[in-house]
Amino acid sequence: MVKVTVKGEEYSVKGTFDFGYIGLFQDEKISLYDLEESVLVPEEDRWGDEWEETARIFGIKGTSDEAVAEALINYINNLEAKVQKHIREINNNLIAKMAEQWQDCGTPFWEASDKLFLPEHMAEFEKIQETDDFDATISSIVCDYIERPNNGTEEKCDAEAEMRRIFPLFDWDKFLSNMKPLHAGPTYDGCLHFEISDGFGAHIFCCAVATLDEELRFLRWDNM
Predict the structure, then answer these.
(1) Partners of 218 in beta bridges
(2) Are residues 78 and 135 part of one domain?
(3) Which residue, 85, 120, 137, sits at the end of a domain?
(4) Residue 92, SS3?
């Protein structure tokens, strides 16, 4: 949970935002920079149609700094609760993005740290890789999660279980527990953004960014 203080265009965020495998964002890594031209404006500019729409999106009751801070506290903490409610699907969608990248570019984990490589499973992996099921499984994962809601309204495959099955020589536990959260926070239009890198040379996630809409779809994905 977070605590927010606001003084005009200046703000401070303290606390944590638990984003599952994406990471635990704390204090300054919970960013409000996308709100600087809409919510975090001088009090004398909090009026008119644009401000009314902003106040509606974020539930701001009044124009004072205290009203803005209280609304942002509630808004961000409610976002975290929503993410936690559907964390399994969100975690799966992150792994589906790995499947999408590996489908397009091969298997980058060969270039990553040897700390992620489990050579005792090489023979098992080579056997799986030779089957039609290998490519079909990756395609199925990618198709299931591309811009699909992660709010429990649509049934999708278990991306994590499937990727663990077909990539047994990749140390999933070590990789997923060492994500590097860069920043996350609400956007001006009521969505949620994040940026992450991995903890193993950024071979798999390098300043990867995404925006989640109200149905927790992964939109505007870019893995630099």
Answers:
(1) 212
(2) no
(3) 85
(4) helix
For 192-218, write each residue's pLDDT tens digit: 999 999 988 888 899 999 999 999 999
Residue 24 Cα distances to 14, 63, 169, 175, angstroms:
13, 31, 26, 15
Q: Is the dihedral of CA 47, 50, 56, 58 positive or negative?
A: negative
Rounded to the nearest angstrom, the gap between the alpha carbon of residue 100 and the centroid of all alpha carbons in its chain is 16
Domain boundary among 85, 111, 138: 85
Alpha-carbon 109 to chain mean position: 21
Give 201's Cβ-side CA count (13 Å radius): 10
18 touches 80 (CB < 8 A) = yes
The domain of 154 spans 87-222
pLDDT, tens digit, 9 for 90 and up, residues 81-137: 999 999 999 999 999 999 998 888 776 666 667 889 899 999 999 999 888 899 999
Cα of 151 vs its chain's centroid, Å = 14
Two structure tokens written together for 190: 């009521």
Place of tokens 């860069």: 182
